[in-house]
Specification:
The protein is α+β, with helices and mostly antiparallel strands. It is built from 32 helices and 32 strands. It binds ligand C2E and magnesium ion (2 copies). One magnesium ion (MG) binds next to loops.
Length: 889
């Protein structure tokens, strides 16, 4: 069919210039200027002079023409290609090449200078056959008596939704629609695009109503689930009119008219349906004179705008299975060769931080290579040059010296540039630059829309790639729950706070009570179910007001863009109820604990986060959600300071020995002393045991301290002995958290031996809490201490759960009555005190009362038979020097 178009057809239709190119010998034969034949056999270079003369073009045109012909690689399909030139008067001019391969080595060309505004109104996107092709196939089928159906398919409301979503979306819809229809047709037939959103489909199918019905239905439903979700969620419906051979006619025109009637009928019915032609349903078709004129046939042939062939090519390449990088490389090389560009630069950005991830450059092989200057991430001048759609279009850089990017383009040896940001759903994946270096190019609407569409296709592809990237997923998503992980969550928050440091926000942290135990009981898989349940509930939250993530194990974090306590409570307790109601693990109660913090304006985020976590640690059985309190925070802070510094403090001798005298109230004489520690923290401030002993007991450091105090006492006694003064026994406290008594004893012996202190000069105080539950072990400990020659006191007797029986079973040398006895002096208590003192004396143990502050009470104790007292009445614990000065003779 294509071969039926002759030179004279072209001559009649296009008066400008017609010629035949010999691709093998690289020359021009049979050239006509209008109806005037020009002498044949020109080299391409010679011919360019003639063309330049006819179209009044500048000289630079020659090289371009040469390159154009050298790049020719065409098929039997007709093609058209617009190229831009400059006239001698400097005006831009576009020349449309229409070409047709007439045999293996010859191409017939028609050349015309065109008004640059005449561009095709319909976007021909899809690499589908044209109408002529189908006409031919219909003829063949009728000739060979092969049954078939001819359908016209129209995408419903295409124009209006093209208007709503824009041409880019419309174009993609067409591409995708054709792809899925093609898949349904398979090798049973053909599809051609015959209008904006109208397609002609021919399918070889038995002329049976049911079969045709089935085929129509399949074709229509194939477009129902187009995968264009990356762009917009759009419902596509189609209307189909169908006629068939031989039932409805034996020539294309008749069958087309009947299918068209059926289509019109379907449209009248309200679209979204298919109609199989019957005269009753659709009306009779009269075959008026409808034979197309040669001009019409020619126009139809050239209806395919070849720009879209290259788009189809790009789509095909980019969707290949091979390496994505390679697909991009091949695509840009196709584009470059096709549009006769000099350079294409595709820059991929790291969407997280707008930095360059990867750059791919294609050069026209004939061009000298210039290293392109890629200004940092397309910012600054490039952005200033862009229009709202993210496009930069510059023709003739040299005449546009005011351009912000002029300098860069000039150094880049660029004459014209067309560039696009590749943006999808607000995310920028990169940018692409199409450049001409040696010649100017006048970017025409056709090129622009084609290249813009290609950029969009890249953006879609990069977006898909980005979404599918497992590496990316692992970086930002929690594997188990598929919600953000901590890093992603924190980064997002940093971004928000960086842009607006005074954002008002709150933080909530929650976890599962005794998660590790739960995990060991119900197993990790069941635990994961609970985590997923929690995540699913989180996913229901409004993302505009709260950002959430799984931190680690059972910990979840929520960032609220507000400080509404009620709302925070609601979110947490909704979660609690939800988990209760939907707990997938039977017999395992899941209890959540949460801490919340309402941040101060401009407060450091990590500090705020710590505060929420601290608050969560304060939750208990009755309180599942606790808000951060400043007092608790300060305690925690000083605890941290203490723990950070305690080891150095031990080395730096910051633990000071204070001694409190034990006095015989009958004589007023010193009988001993108790060693009580003070911590000269950093040699700055004095800390009392209450500030640090509980912390040491918790973290185990107490053992180190006790040895240190013991050593300090030994050093002290050594000093007294060496200065020939009279030492008295000093008692030291053993922490109730010491459990390895053998080790304790061998350690203190070692110290005592080192300083050669007689064992009667040291007493050991054991507190009541220590033996409450393990009297036997303590009895053993006391025995061991006695064996080593130490005397042993029971400290704080009567403070906690007084255990009178322990007095009888444990072999103490001295009972120290707790200072509480001095405070409460009601009738009952004095009776108890009297009987305890009596009991102790009867058991042959000594008795001392601590915390004696008044002479009156000391006298009273004396009257009960308790002579030894320790308390503020005589002295507070004194620094060793003060103690020596006052008491040691
Ligand atoms: P404790 O062993 O029962 O020591 C007696 C506490 O009562 C001391 O408090 C002492 O200062 C205080 N005290 C003495 N006289 C009076 C008084 O008349 N009125 C009042 N209200 N209090 C009086 P401190 O020094 O604060 O020690 C508290 C506790 O810390 C001690 O109770 C002891 O259990 C522990 N502790 C102190 N130093 C050490 C140590 O080196 N090692 C161990 N493991 N514990 C120590
Ligand atoms: Mg004590
Ligand atoms: Mg005590």
């Amino acid at each position: 069919m294509t071969k039926d178009i002759t030179k004279s057809d072209l001559l009649n239709l296009y008066g400008d210039l017609t010629f035949v190119v010999d691709l093998i010998d690289k020359k021009v034969t049979n050239a006509y200027n209008g109806n005037e034949p020009i002498k044949g056999d020109f080299s391409f270079a010679d011919f360019s002079d003639i063309i330049a003369e006819i179209f009044d073009l500048q000289n630079s045109f020659k090289g371009k023409l040469n390159r154009f012909f050298s790049n020719l690689n065409i098929t039997y399909e007709p093609f058209t290609l617009p190229l831009d030139y400059v006239r001698t008067n400097g005006e831009p001019s576009r020349i449309i090449y229409k070409g047709l391969k007439i045999d293996d080595s010859h191409v017939l060309f028609s050349l015309s200078a065109s008004d640059t505004s005449t561009t095709s109104k319909v976007d021909e996107l899809t690499k589908t056959h044209n109408r002529t092709f189908i006409v031919e196939k219909v003829k063949d089928a009728v000739d060979t008596n092969k049954e078939f159906a001819l359908m016209i398919l129209s995408i419903d409301n295409y124009d209006s939704f093209n208007d709503i979503y824009g041409h880019m979306v419309g174009d993609i819809v067409l591409i995708e629609a054709v792809a899925s229809i093609k898949k349904t047709i398979g090798n049973r037939g053909y599809i051609a695009r015959i209008g904006g959103a109208e397609f002609l489909i021919m399918i070889y199918v038995e002329n049976n109503y049911d079969v045709i019905h089935g085929v129509c239905r399949d074709i229509r439903t194939s477009t129902n689930d187009l995968s264009i979700h990356n762009i917009k969620q759009i419902e596509i419906t189609t209307t189909v009119g169908c006629a068939s051979y031989p039932k409805d006619g034996d020539n294309y025109e008749l069958l087309f008219k009947k299918a068209d009637k059926a289509l019109i009928r379907g449209k009248k019915k309200g679209r979204d349906c298919f109609i199989i032609y019957t005269p009753e349903r659709c009306g009779e078709v009269s075959l008026e004179d409808s034979v197309e004129t040669p001009t019409q046939i020619f126009d139809k042939m050239y209806n395919v705008n070849t720009n879209y062939n290259v788009i189809a090519g790009v789509l095909e390449i980019i969707n290949r299975d091979s390496n994505f990088q390679k697909n991009i490389e091949d695509s840009i090389s196709l584009i470059g060769n096709y549009f006769l560009l000099d350079r294409i630069t595709l820059v991929r950005l790291n969407t997280e931080n707008d930095t360059i991830m990867n750059t791919q450059i294609w050069y026209n092989p004939r061009m000298p290579k210039h290293v392109p200057i890629l200004k940092d991430s397309w910012k600054g001048a490039w952005r200033d040059t862009m229009d709202a759609s993210g496009m930069v279009k510059v023709n003739q850089v040299n005449s546009n010296k005011h351009l912000p990017i002029y300098e860069e383009l000039k150094t880049n040896k660029t004459s014209s540039v067309l560039a696009f940001e590749m943006i999808l759903n607000g995310t920028m994946f990169g940018h692409i630059k199409f450049e001409m270096c040696s010649t100017n190019r006048f970017w025409q609407q056709n090129d622009i829309s084609a290249l813009m569409l290609i950029s969009k296709i890249f953006a879609i592809k990069l977006h898909k790639e980005y979404e599918n990237n497992i590496h990316y997923k692992e970086l930002f998503y929690d594997r188990v729950t598929d919600i953000y992980n901590y890093n992603k969550w924190r980064n997002d928050i940093y971004n928000i706070l960086e842009n607006n440091p005074f954002t008002k926000y709150s933080i909530l942290e929650f976890n599962i009570e005794s998660y590790r135990t739960l995990k060991s009981v119900i197993g990790p898989a069941a635990c994961e179910k609970i985590l997923v349940l929690i995540a699913n509930k989180l996913k229901e939250l409004n993302k505009n007001t709260v950002m959430y993530c799984r931190d680690s194990d059972d910990k979840f974090l929520l960032f609220f863009h507000h400080q509404d306590e009620e709302e925070i409570n609601k979110v947490f307790y909704d979660m609690v109820h939800y988990v209760d109601a939907n707990n997938p693990v039977k017999n395992a109660k899941v209890t959540l604990h949460a801490g919340a913090y309402i941040a101060e304006e401009g407060e450091d985020f990590t500090v705020a986060l710590d505060k929420a976590i601290l608050a969560r640690r304060q939750t208990g059985i009755s309180t599942q959600l606790v808000y951060f309190s400043q007092k608790f925070y300060e305690q925690q802070q000083s605890k941290t300071q203490i723990e950070l510094h305690m080891r150095d403090a031990l080395k730096n001798n910051e633990f000071l020995l204070y001694l409190q005298p034990k006095i015989n109230s009958a004589t007023g004489k010193l009988v001993g002393a108790e060693a009580l520690t003070r911590w000269h923290f950093n040699h700055e401030k004095l800390l009392f045991p209450n500030d640090f002993i509980p912390i040491f007991e918790e973290n185990g450091f107490i053992e180190e301290l006790d040895y240190k105090v013991f050593e300090n006492v030994c050093i002290f006694q050594r000093k007294i002995i060496d200065s020939n003064r009279r030492p008295v026994p000093i008692s030291v406290n053993v922490s109730r958290y010491i459990t390895d008594y053998k080790k304790y004893i061998s350690k203190i012996n070692e110290i005592r031996n080192k300083y050669e202190i007689p064992n009667w000069l040291i007493e050991i105080e054991i507190t009541e809490g220590m033996y409450i539950n393990n009297a036997e072990i303590i009895a053993e400990f006391i025995n061991m201490l006695h064996k080593e020659g130490y005397s042993v006191s029971m400290d704080d007797f009567g403070a906690g759960y007084s255990n009178l029986s322990s007095l009888a079973t444990l072999d103490f040398d001295l009972i120290k009555l707790d200072k509480n006895f001095c405070k409460n002096q009601s009738g009952k208590e004095t009776t108890i005190l009297a009987s305890i003192i009596d009991l102790v004396r009867n058991l042959n143990m000594n008795v001392l009362c601590e915390g004696v502050e008044t002479q009156k009470f000391a006298d009273y104790l004396k009257s009960l038979g308790c002579y030894i007292v320790q308390g503020y009445l005589y002295d507070k614990p004194l620094p060793e020097e003060a103690f020596i000065k006052k008491y040691i003779k």
